Amino acid sequence: MTVSTSSLNRTTVTLQQLAESSNKHSLQQTLTAMIAASAQPPLAQALSTQTRRNQQDSIAAIPFHQFCLDSRQLKKNDVFVLLKSQTLHSQKSRDYLIQAANSAAFILSEIDPIALLTTADMNTSSLADNLQSVAQQQLIALPCPVLYVPNIRDFLGDLIQAYLQYQQPVILPAIVAVTGTNGKTTISQLVAQLAQLMGMSSAVMGTAGNGKLGALVQASHTTGDALAVQQFLYQMGQENADLLALEASSHGLDQQRLQGMPASVAIYTNLSRDHLDYHADMAEYAAAKAKLFDKTHFPELTHAIINLDDEHAQIMLDMAHTSALTVWTYSLNPTKNATFVAATINPSLQGVEIAVRYNVSNNTGDVHLDSTDANHDQTNTITVISPLLGRFNVANLLAAIAATVAIGTDIDHDIERIAAVVPQLQGAVGRMQRVPSNEGCFIVDYAHTPDALQQVLASLKTHCDGQLWAVFGCGGDRDAGKRPLMAQAGLAGADQIILTADNPRTEDPNIILQDMQAGMSAEQYQRTHIEPARQKAIEYAVRQAAAADIVVIAGKGHETYQEINNVRYDFDDSVVLQNALQQAGRV
């Protein structure tokens, strides 16, 4: 996810020039605040008045080539931005600082450099005073200036985008951002498809890849770092994309990787247990998601689109109201007073027919989870035929329709046009993806949380004349508490489950599988088959499933690899399943 460099002038620039050239983000004030931060303790105590003045003046006027967040990619006269690591020891950060100083024009550090240089060398507390003095001298002696900017994440994205626009101005696409545990990938792709079918050039950024529709490049993270995100946004501007639909992960929001992204529409899907290896608890997880609806973080927001059926929705609603956004809600419950409601749902294995009831207004008033309204006289209804499988995909479609309406200009006309093109939609790769077979039904899905797996199985159970099978595992080096919950979700929704490896990473797959079996009853064990090798597990399911059965291969979806002991091996569930079906003579 890097910007093309061939079309950029790569002229040198100074921070002062960036501030003066940008009128969108008020970088003049940002630069003033940034330099002022260097005069605050403890850095102020470390440097003399003259030294501070020299550093401030020189940094504001030093020409540089570009910003860099990875010391390994740093080139001569780049600006190195040293950010706090979520995992690495301070010694590593100190090494990055010293290494970068040999090449950088200057360094902007989120970490207090005096404290970093001191604590990295400190062996005993009695040496603290001497080591701080030594650290002060080390900082002054570095080949380039270092500016301590503890709040740099508050404006780093703005700064990077100002640099890119200084090189060559482009018009950036409108942005629809989606957050939530489940549904982000599907909704972002549906929004992009709907917009494109309505005549806009669309792009996506997220788990399934980055780029314009039809030309996605696989991404390593749902939300890249601030530099990669801004470069990608700029590249989509270069390629004349009108719309960018992106996934906003809780990690990305918490670490402010999306700072400076001009999102105008924000969508909330749901919240269920995930990423508790990173967030302390569900409250912290929800708070990270709620940042997407905070205008102090995303000042160009106009619309919030929120799933009224989710128990955590009120947190998002409260933030959206505080930000005075136009709030539209969606629901699968026909008794709820949501902006977009699925009044009736008629599903099949070929898709679903939905009667969508809508009452769109620029609503900034209070909306509550328990809001219901038996009087729907002011609403309109339109029938939508969707090719997407699963009840949860009805919710995803409602969110996508709402977002597409929000970026449009004529609500009633746009809704009619949107309804007309819904049958042309395609589900995201690895999301309720049906793999062809001449008997039986075989599905690949990304469901990797208990809630997502439960929803997938519940959606398919109503169509299953035989037995419903689920093949899944849990990732290694992640929240171990989720493992038995995943197994219980599978047992609750499926007739037979096959537990296997997911991405074990550095853990023994057998240990993960043992964790998943915790608390199982004798009856549940009778419905459980254990096969650590994922390929063998898929082949077993294909051999065992009867003609009327449905088999779901869950957990990895679009992924084309399996990570074992820090090595990524080629592994695509849909490809492995296709091969197994061929070997079994079922295609």
Q: How would you portray this structure in words?
A:
- The chain has a ten-stranded mixed sheet with strand order 7-6-8-5-9-10-11-12-13-14, with helices on both faces.
- Helix 1 packs antiparallel against helix 2, helix 5 (90-101) crosses helix 6 and helix 12 packs parallel to helix 13.
- Residues 1-6, 41-54, 120-126 and 372-377 have low confidence and may be disordered.
- Helix 5 (90-101) links the parallel strand 2 (79-82) and strand 3 (106-109).
- It has 587 residues and is an alpha/beta fold.
Major sheet, described briefly? 10 strands, mixed
Note the overall shape. Answer: globular
Beta-strand percent range = 15-25%
- Cα-based radius of gyration, to the nearest Å: 26 Å
Enumerate how many helices there are, as a single number: 21
**DSSP strand count:** 22
Report the end-to-end length measured between terminal Cα atoms: 37 Å
Q: Into which percent range does the helicity of residues fall?
A: 25-40%
Task: State the low-pLDDT regions, or none.
Answer: 1-6, 41-54, 120-126, 372-377
**How confident overall, as mean pLDDT?**
88
Oligomerization state of this entry? single chain
Strand order of the largest sheet: 7-6-8-5-9-10-11-12-13-14
Derived structural class: alpha/beta
